[in-house]
Amino acid sequence: MERRGMSTDPLWMDPHDRRRRQEEEEAFRQRQNKTVLSYLAAVVVGMAGLSYASVPLYRLFCQVSGFGGTTQEASSEKIEKMVPIKDRVIKVTFNADVHATLNWNFRPQQTEIYVVPGETALAFYKAKNPTDKPIIGVSTYNVVPFEAGQYFNKIQCFCFEEQRLNPHEEVDMPVFFYIDPEIDENPNLLNVNLITLSYTFYEAKEGSNLALPGFK
Question: Where are the transmembrane segments (predicted)?
């Protein structure tokens, strides 16, 4: 059986024919190599594109479904009826990330605060555009541990809204929230005394707001 890529010319073949056969085999191998390289390049580009898009899409999915530790929208009726759990204090830490395509400085103004379930709290992030051109950013967020996300309610937030910063402009971004006292009824979270709120900013083109109807 002939093995592709290996010459099987009989020794008695005319030298010119043998050389032509070898050239044909070499050309075939080069075409194979180019095909493989093209395929690998397409795979790399495709994976890069997916990795860029997957994070914001995943966060948007989490915002709708509640999966992955996303926080919940607060209601005024819920706030009025809350009864704080005074004997339970939870430390909330804050994290800030910026996607590689967005040339912003973004950070929390406090590293941590202590909150009581059932009482409101206010935190701030700071964003700055250090460039000489206006840039639009949009943020996503989540909570760790994931299961605590359903009890982390935001009253005011800058997430999923386009934020336009002019050249060298710096702004404060408030996060007004509370932890639902019902967290104390979840046996899986009775020993949780630390929650981390994370925001990630991505660059957005004007008019491409990632905000979803009904979310602020």
Answer: 36-55
- The total domain count for the chain is 2
- Find the Cα–Cα–Cα–Cα dihedral 10, 15, 19, 24, rounded to 10°: -50
- CA 153 to centroid of chain Cα atoms: 20
Find tokens 């701030």 and name the residue: 124
Which tens digits make up the pLDDT trace of 70-84? Answer: 445 556 677 778 899
* pLDDT greater at residue 211 or residue 116: 116
Please check whether residues 34 and 129 belong to one and the same domain.
no
**Quick one: three-class SS letters along 46-65?**
HHHHHHHHHHHHHHHHHHHH
State the Cα angle at 100 between 99 and 106, rounded to 5°: 55
Query: Over 90: is that where the pLDDT of 164 sits?
Result: yes
